[in-house]
Amino acid sequence: MKENTKVYWKGLEQLTNSPDFVQNAHKEFPEAPPEENLDHSRRDFLKMMGFGVSAVALAACEAPIRKAIPYVNKPVDLDPSVANYYASTYINGGDYCSIVVKTREGRPIKVDGNALSSVTKGGTSAQVEASVLSLYDNDRLRAPKSAGKNTAWEDLDKAVIAKLTEINAAGGQIRIVSNTVLSPSTKAAIDKFKAKYPTTQHIQYDQNSHFGIAKANEESFGTAMIPSYDFSKAKVIVSIGADFLNAWGSPIENTKQYAITRDAGEGKNDISRHFQFESNLSVTGANADYRSQLKPSEEGAVVVALYNEIASLAGRATVSGGVEKNYLKKAAQELWANRGKALVVAGSNDKAVQVLVNGINNMLGSYGVTILPHLPVYFRQGDDAAMANFVSEVEGGKVAGVIFFNCNPVYDHPMGDKIGAALKNVSLSVSTSYKEDETASMTAFLAPDHHYLEAWNDAEPKKNHFSLAQPAITPIYKTRAAQESFMIWAGESNVDYFEFVKNNWKNRFFKGGNFQSFWDKCLYDGVLEMPVDAASVSFAGNVSAAASAIAANYKSGAAFELAIYENGTVGNGSQANNPLLQELPEPITKAVWDHYVLISQKDAAAAGITNPESKTRYANVTANGKTVKLPVLIQPGLAQGVLAIAIGYGRTKAGKVADGIGENVYPMVTMTNGSLNFSAAEAKFELLSEDYQIAQTQTHHTYMARQTVIREFKSIDVKENPEILTKSFAPKVATWLDEDHQVKPGELSMWKGHDYKNHHWGMAIDLNTCTGCAACVVACNVENNVALVGREEVINRREMHWLRIDRYYSSDAEVTDWKGLEEASDNPEVVFQPMLCQHCNNAPCETVCPVAATTHSTEGLNQMTYNRCIGTRYCANNCPYKVRRFNWFKYHDNKQFEKSNVAQTSDIGKMVLNPDVTVRSRGVMEKCSFCVQKIQAGKLTAKRERRELQDGEVTTACQTSCSTGAITFGDMNNPESKISKLLKLRPANPDRPYSIDKIADNPRAYTVLEEIGVKPNIFYLSKIRNKDSANA
Amino acid sequence: MFLERVPKTSNKFEKMTSDSRFVASALQPDTKPDMTKHTQLATLKFTFLSLLLTVLCSISFAQDIPADPAAISAGESLFNANCKTCHRVHQKLIGPALADVYNRAPSIDWIKSFIKNSAGLIASGDAYAVNLYNEYNKTQMTAFSGLKDEQIMQILAYVQAETIKGPPVAAAPVAAAGGSGDAGSGIPSSYLNAIVAGLVLILVLLVVILGFLVSALKRFLDQKDLSAEDKELVHSPITSNSILKSAGFSFIVIFFVVALGFKALINGLFSIGVQQGYAPKQPIAFSHQIHAGQYEIQCQYCHTGVTKGKSATIPSVNVCMNCHNQIKEGALYGTAELSKIQAAYDNNTPIQWVRIHNLPDLAYFNHAQHVNVGGIECQTCHGPIQEMEVVRQHSLLTMGWCIDCHRKTDVNSKGNAYYDKLVELHNKSSKSAMKVEDIGGLECAKCHY
Fold first, then answer.
1. Any idea where the Cytochrome c domain is (chain B) (predicted)?
2. Longest Cα separation, chain B
3. N or C: which end of chain B has fewer CB within 10 A?
4. Can you give the CATH number for the domain in which A490 is found?
5. Contact between chains at A72 and B350 (C-beta distance less than 8 A)
6. A58, A69, A855, best to mutate vs chain B, most B CBs in 10 Å
7. Would you call B449 and A858 a contact, using CB atoms and an 8 Å cutoff?
């Protein structure tokens, strides 16, 4: 039997076993950081004493008077303490998600995916989950402003209309600049404005531009559009630099579809095969079966090479150029073998590259199957050329009036500086941004729009797929819908945007019957979908011209190239002021609150950089005429000779949370072949002597052996020997019976084991479909009022997240094969493992608590009673999974944590707190509760309706947020539940069906650290990497 | 002055005086939890009394009053539900003590008609009724037209049984029904005093005897040949000063001071955060006694959230206005208080009530679970709310109080399919009814999360 001999490591420190790592890994708790001077004087003692005595005296007095304030006129459908749900739409520029908003007493407190949408299908992302806190951002505009002072809407309107009339009379040019506008009604409102002021042009741009794809499709098929992709139909997926699970195309939709192809069930082998060719290790690359490195300048050449490989297989003419890469031939062969079920995508924004990709997909017969050109998406309507033209116009003084509609080009457009400088000479400048951001602060008038959760709106993310947004809260501040502003400025009399949207829907989509019931249904569902006629396309792109353009435009050879990428946390930076995203460990680097330049291991070694335990140095990186100073972080998997920096940082006017973190690298983006190019062919790297420590969680909470923590198999091995799934690691415990007698660890116990008569809650996490996107972490934070502790405390290893995603690098090399390991660490394989309280049935934490603050329930939950906890931390010490978190400080109402813990330190922020979950205080332990508040609520609903609890009624926050369905939660006592069926659960003893001991017959199911016999209620399904053999 | 049950117009309210409020009878829920106990008690007592009864019956003219235990227990619950607010058997309350009323009153039929319509009887000029009316400050008894003759007979049966029992014995259930303390506990205080006096006497005697012993010992020691030091020691006089300075005395004083201090501290600590009896002044002097008591408005009419969610909800002003659109003057304060509601409604300013029941944030309590699913009466926790002019916190609201109830209370599983499996499993292993405790009602994460 071949054992699973892979080597796993969390960070390079662990691979090299650096002394710092060893020291920290062996300590239960990090060393206490230096506190303030602890030598208290006698006077201090007396002060403390005096305070203590008076505090006790006060506490013994009458409790403070608390008020209960009912409504004057209670809305009929709203009951205090009962949550209401509204279907709505998350719109942030071109980013789209159909959502359901949970409100309590009229306050949105949580955003979930809307399963009725066929676009996002109930999926969400970290940014969508976090957006609810952006609503309560303390740095939002409170009222309209004119010339830096708060003003009244009437006065602002008068002034703006006067200016517009003046410009119009003089025939001056007016521009409306925005990110992608998904909303048909908004476009109609803008049209009204355009009709009044005919010189108006509406220019759209995207931070993460896909303009090249649209241009390529125009050349290939005659229409400039971006098609829908259907990853679920693909057996072989090849991505060249496209981070389609995180930042490319429609990530939520892609993730949903991708997961379908990656579902390995009970170890079946027909999962998709995914090749990734990329420079920086992305979330998508981390999920790939075969990953190959390239330099940004080689992206085009790799596409050319792939084209040629397939063309020769197809017997067609090849084009000139190309470069050889690992697995490229294999990828081509498999694509060809699976033609009609294959998909090739490329991240490049260059028209020439995308024309070749279209050519490849055309040869593979992808159109109509995995690519749906008849179903274009509208996520990215930005026009790089038009925007560049606008910049030159505004610089040349040709624009008299400009309205920035919910966009921030001064920050997030490569030529933002130029726009900012030219604005002084523009006669009328208005921003509708809901914050006084980098652009808005340079405009004369600020007409703040609502946050999307306060506003009516609609969206068309995909052809004939419509979506409604409805307000979940009355506007908090004196803001006004930007669409209403446009219509008021256009001199319209009836400007209620709600009525406008409604009428728009009535005129466009309503097909007879009762309009009110049609409207109510649309509002209830949140979406309206209409069929689209299928149409075939014929490819007419000029591939050889494209190939020569690539050859002409990209030259490699510089010592360093720069790759600019969008990470999975702050994204494009528009939500950077959201601490939920800042403190979310980046899926790959596991860094929080920090901006850094990534460097490959070999380059780091050459430059003499090590960063043990995140301690590093600053470096200056210069590219395309711009220099940024950032700390250096070594990234395994990053191609040699490439530096990588994320966009979304370096905000200066975002607000207290984001300002001053990192540098803005948008200005490093240049135009290549008519569209934005997120790389630089030549970058200068200059290491500085200044030290820095990056807040990085990657080696935090390192725990015992790896063998039963991660279980990963190659599909070829499973195919050859299915037993490997169950037998590769089966720990046994010797007993006293005789020398050879051994039993499974769970079978030996000091206890007889309980019966859970009612429910037995359990969870299954599929490592094969988990993409590591971390939406679940944010969802958990929001649902459970988890405190955000800030950079310093993360460095002290005191982050509070109940759910973490452990990211392991791995290699096939033998443990003793040092050379092999070193090579492997250059391009390691990656496994993500969500790690949360395992709710052990024989929980080690429970037995050591001196005050019984952590106990077990009759439903299998490991309960944590905050008020009983005295903070000995024995439980955390004894937890084999290191999932318990200690409140080192009072994080709520504490000025010290104002920046990070927005939700618990300000009156506005507190509106987001979940009223059903206690905000923990200093000195108590906390951990995942399996969302016990949701369990209790689900049970109560069933009891009130006098019926049994149905499977699927109770969900945890992480499960709901998971786009891939990797997390399954349910009642393991119910044989019909999804979890019972997925894991094929059966009671260990048929006479005791309700016993804690359940056996999972799914061969992929295992429990982490099985050998210690704690009997967790969380099962993992082992990862199957769809590989042929070790070195192929 | 005569009152109708549900006056709709304001002029009727005007005439209402505070002492006429008693006419609204007690609500049933008040006494329900105690009923089973009483029934058992009554049954036990019955066997003891039945002999006595047979003798007594012959001399009373109330032969037609039933004497079977079923009638008595039915009568007891009827009495508790309808009469107890104003009447006791052996005690004069708002109305007369009812002991021996079947012999005292003109006839059983007279009693029936008085209960059904006392006002009519008084108006008809019935001498006994008019006398009674005048004797009790012209307070009108509510008309119980809904009571049937046989029910009145059952009440009389209960009254008769209690009358025969006599006051000292009969006092016990009444006191217990009031919910105060354990009636059967301990020795009367006069005995205690006697015991203390006896103990003091014994102690004094002991002191005297010890004094004799000391002098005897001294004399004995004097006869011996002692050193000068020892002599001094033996003859050192016992003065108040020497006692005060002695180690034993200091120890006793310190011990008592410390013990009492400790006791006071512990008591003080246990009372922190307990606000039983908290009855703050509210911005509007709303009387539950009038609304829930006198007019018997259902609690859920105003507290709409009680079956739906965690919060029972304090009614919004528009709920008040449902009735007070019409009723503009109150019984107690005229227009003074009601105008505040009108003002809040007109100005769209919410009323800031003072919260009485404050659970700490760390405890989760859900009204729907208890009222809707558990079928618990409001009064079980909130006390006789229908009698409260100003609402006060009736229960301790401590964790011990919650736990105690979860231990004692049967799960209301009847007709609720959610519990079917649990009841089946429970019945396999136990013969007693399924308590809340048995299905995890004592677990931490049921209330703390």
1. 70-163
2. 106
3. N
4. 3.40.50.740
5. yes
6. A69
7. no
Using the Cβ of A858 and the Cβ atoms of chain B, whether some distance falls under 8 Å is answered with yes
Cβ neighbours of residue A694 closer than 8 Å, sequence gap 6 or more: A591, A594, A596, A611, A614, A616, A631, A633
Minimum Cα–Cα distance from A852: chain B residue: B444
A799 is in which domain, residue-wise? 7-18+701-720+756-1025
**Residue with the larger pLDDT of the pair A873 and A823:** A873
Boundary (domain end) residue, out of B177, B206, B231: B177
Total of domains in chain A: 4
Which residue does chain A place closest to B412, by CA atoms?
A943
Q: What distance, in Å, lies between the first and last C-alpha atoms of chain B?
A: 57
User: For residue B43, what pLDDT is reported?
Assistant: 44
pLDDT-derived band at B60, boundaries 50, 70, 90 = very low
A58, A65, A76, A81: best to mutate for the B interface, most B CBs within 10 A = A81
Retrieve residue A971's tokens.
Answer: 């009642």
Same structural domain, A183 and A239: no
Residue B1 counted as domain residue = no
Q: Domain for residue B5, yes or no?
A: no
Domain end position, chosen among A472, A505, A525: A525
CB contact under 8 A, A73 and B446: no
B210-268 per-position pLDDT tens digit: 989 988 888 888 887 778 787 777 777 777 888 888 888 899 999 999 999 999 999 88
The CA distance from A752 to the nearest CA of chain B, in Å, is: 17
Interface contact A932, partner B, CB < 8 A? yes
From A340, A360, A377, give the residue that closes a domain.
A377
Work out the angle between the directed axes of helices B189-222 and B228-235 (0-180°, nearest 10): 150
| A688: phi then psi, degrees, rounded to nearest 5 | -105, 165
Relative to beta strand A173-178, strand A399-405 is parallel
Chain A residues 62-121 with a CB less than 8 Å from chain B: 63, 65-74, 79-82
Contacts of A39 (CB under 8 A, 6+ apart): none
Task: Output B91 or A181, whichever has higher pLDDT.
Answer: A181
Smallest CA-to-CA distance from A147 within A403, A480, A445 is with: A445
Q: Where residue B135 falls among pLDDT bands split at 50, 70, 90?
A: confident
Q: If you measure CA to CA, which chain A residue comes closest to B311?
A: A81
Distance from B179 to chain A by nearest Cα, in Å? 26
Stronger pLDDT, B44 or A907, i.e. the higher one? A907
Lowest mean pLDDT among A25-29, A108-112, A128-132, A425-429: A25-29
Q: How many residues are present in chain B?
A: 449
pLDDT per residue as tens digits for the range A346-384? 999 999 999 999 999 999 999 999 999 999 999 999 999
Span of A386-390, A655-659, A876-880, B242-246 with lowest mean pLDDT: B242-246
DSSP B65: S
- CB contact residues (below 8 A), chain A span 954-1013, against chain B: 994
Q: CB–CB of A68 and B314 under 8 A?
A: yes
- Chain A, chain B: beta-carbon pairs less than 8 Å apart: 156
- Tell if the CB–CB gap between B440 and A918 is shorter than 8 Å: no
B431, B420: one domain: yes
Q: Which residues pair with A107 in a beta bridge?
A: A104
Taking CB atoms and an 8 Å limit, are A81 and B305 in contact across chains? yes
Q: Is A317 on the interface with B (CB under 8 A)?
A: no
Contact call for B311 and A80, based on CB within 8 A: yes
Residue A729: inside a domain = no
Tell whether B106 and B235 lie within a shared domain.
Answer: no
Task: State the DSSP string of B389-431.
Answer: SS----S--SHHHHHHHHHHPBP--TT-GGGHHHHHHHHHH-S
B373 Cα to chain A: minimum distance (Å): 6
Give the tens place of pLDDT for each residue, A508-564: 999 888 999 999 999 999 999 999 988 888 999 899 999 999 999 888 888 999 999
Q: What DSSP line would sit under A782-807, residue for residue?
A: HHTT-----HHHHHTT----SSEEEE
| Residue A23 counted as domain residue | no
